[in-house]
TrEMBL record:
Its cofactor is Zn(2+). Pfam families: AstE_AspA_cat. It comes from the Bacteria. Keywords: Hydrolase, Metal-binding, Zinc. Transmembrane segments: none annotated. The active site is at E274 (proton donor/acceptor). Residues 30-305 form the Peptidase M14 domain. This is M14 family metallocarboxypeptidase. Belongs to the peptidase M14 family. InterPro entries: AstE_AspA_cat (IPR055438), Peptidase_M14 (IPR000834). CDD domains: M14_REP34-like (cd06231).
Length: 305
């Protein structure tokens, strides 16, 4: 008998219902603390930036305050730039890179740009090292009208009055070995589809917007990151994670069509970073440094163009 089960929850070829999602949620236990790891670092920024709570996640019995950090004396006459991290909570350097940028580099742009940073969009997922939220929904496919994800809806509400002035949005992510061992199998099981194994690229790459490609912008970001860590090569199909490589270390997705975070401002310059923290050629600090280098290069290019 051929056993097609590849994930411990659900029945092969049948999408999950409420019972399967409840079973999945019960398996997700906190292994680190948003209150201890992230919130104190935000509090430490209050003398230099405006730190505000823009919402609360309610996953009873757990609740999580959501924080945004912005330039003091926000000036509507200046261009505005957005940095988001932790949309997928398990992607550690997205959160830590955003916080490191705030602590070390964000002040460099005072008087030149309004800087808005949301370092941890998905604190429930951060604590559980999980891609989805507590409802087994991927926030980074949920930046759509009437979003089913609390995380996505809250961020869109924060940005609604600020969209017009945004010239750049960089969304900080990682591609990890656990994408292949846990998260893609879980996705296939949840949706009642077969799991088709893929390859995890070794290195940093960017996701440009198919509907608004900015190749010179992507190249500038990769050039800065290459000083910190290596850029992911294409596989033997000239692809990275199943998408055609359009330039070294660059693939494209239709951001708005897929409901991806990088689509939400309508900014001219947008990108999604993808760091590979499991590489034997990169340390956790290099991953954070790569995120900071990407953010600074993205802002610099946007302000110059």
């Amino acid at each position: 008998m051929n056993d097609t089960r590849f994930y411990p929850i659900g029945t092969p070829n049948q999408p999950w219902g409420a019972a399967e999602k409840a079973e999945w949620r019960a398996r997700q236990v906190p292994v680190r603390s948003y209150a201890n790891d992230v919130v104190p670092k935000l509090d430490a920024l209050r003398d230099r930036f405006d730190v505000t709570q823009y919402g609360t996640l309610d996953y009873t019995p757990h609740t999580y305050p959501l924080f945004a950090v912005r330039s003091k004396n926000w000036n509507p006459s200046l261009p505005s730039v957005l940095v988001t991290g932790g949309v997928h909570g398990y992607e550690t350097s997205g959160v830590e890179g955003a916080l490191q940028f705030l602590d070390t580099r964000a002040a460099d742009y005072a008087g030149r740009a309004n800087v808005l940073v949301v370092p941890c969009v998905s604190p429930w997922g951060y604590e559980r090292i999980q891609r989805w939220n507590a409802d087994a929904i991927d926030p980074n496919r949920s930046f759509v009208a009437d979003s089913p994800a609390q995380e996505s809806a809250a961020l869109m509400a924060l940005l609604a009055p600020l969209r017009e002035g945004m010239v750049m949005h960089i969304d900080l992510h990682e591609t990890t070995d656990s994408d292949e061992s846990e998260f893609r199998p879980a996705l296939a099981a949840r949706d009642g589809k077969p799991f088709e194994p893929g390859l995890i690229p070794d290195g940093f790459y960017l996701v440009d917007d198919t509907e608004n490609p900015q190749p010179a912008f992507q190249q500038a970001v990769n050039a800065a990151v290459e000083q910190v860590t290596h850029i992911a090569p294409a596989d033997d199909r000239n692809e990275i994670i199943g998408s055609a490589v359009v330039a070294p270390g660059v693939i494209q997705y239709p951001l708005k069509t897929l409901g991806l975070c990088a689509s939400i401002t309508g900014a001219r310059f947008t990108t999604t970073t993808e760091v590979y923290p499991d590489s034997p050629r990169a340390t956790p600090q290099q991953c954070n440094d790569a995120q900071v280098a990407a953010v600074c290069a993205a802002i610099d290019y946007a302000l110059a163009h």
